[in-house]
Amino acid sequence: MPYTTHTQQAIPSSSVDEQALAQAELDNYIESQAEAVAPTQDPLTARDRRIIGKIIQVEPESVRTIWIEGGITVWVRFVNGSCLPFDRDWFAKRVAEVKATLPETPLERNERLSDELEKACAVFGLYHGEIDWLSFSTKLYQDGHNVCFVGCDQQGWYARPRQYGVNRVAGSAELVIALLGVRATVAA
After folding, report:
1. Pair 139, 146: CB distance under 8 Å
2. Could you give the CA distance from residue 67 to residue 69 in angstroms, rounded to a whole number?
3. Which of 111, 126, 115, 112 is nearest to 159 (CA)?
């Protein structure tokens, strides 16, 4: 009986390299098409990247994302695809330390003040006009009537019932509106 013996031929390394290159190009193309169809939301803010960059001493722009694995390890993925693991407790402690020393950007300040103003407006049943983001000031209205002019500067929140007049100053948007005698809305 004749027996057939099969031998495996070696694939030339150049065709393996070409195949790997073609696969990488295909993967990049699919990823770019998926991003064009449904862009992903970036879970990290510029401030997050600055904090992470300061902790692990890298450029903030090189950080792609982070995640926690098993509740123990914080993984940092970089734009180049590499990853670094860190102990969760150590990382959390360092984040708190860096956050305390990192100055607030003007955008972050405006977002924080805007959130505080929105909450104060909800308490008093007010709404505001367009915000002047450079001076962080606006007019507040109730039932279509101008109630006051309000803003925030280095001294804190200020409000006055008319465009020109004496400012009332307080530590929060809610307190400064209350100083003008505006009553909080009561749920019916």
Report:
1. yes
2. 7
3. 126
- From the CB of residue 89, how many other CB atoms can be counted at a distance below 10 Å? 10
The sign of the CA dihedral 102, 106, 107, 111 is positive
Q: What is the pLDDT of residue 66?
A: 93
Residues 6+ positions from 136 with CB-CB distance below 8 Å:
109, 110, 113, 151, 152, 153
- Rg of the Cα atoms in the chain: 28
183 three-class SS: coil
Compute the distance between CA of residue 183 and CA of residue 126 in angstroms, rounded to an integer: 10
Q: How far is CA 134 from CA 62, 107, 123, 137, in A?
A: 30, 10, 25, 8
Residue 142's φ and ψ, nearest 5 degrees, are -140, 120
The number of CA neighbours under 13 Å toward the Cβ of 62 is 12
Number of C-beta neighbours around residue 11 at 10 A: 9
pLDDT at residue 170 tops 70: yes
In which band, very low, low, confident or very high, does the pLDDT at 12 lie, cut at 50, 70 and 90?
low
| pTM exceeding 0.70 | no
Residue 165, pLDDT score: 79
90 versus 42: which is more confidently predicted?
90
8 A C-beta contact, residue 40 and residue 34: no
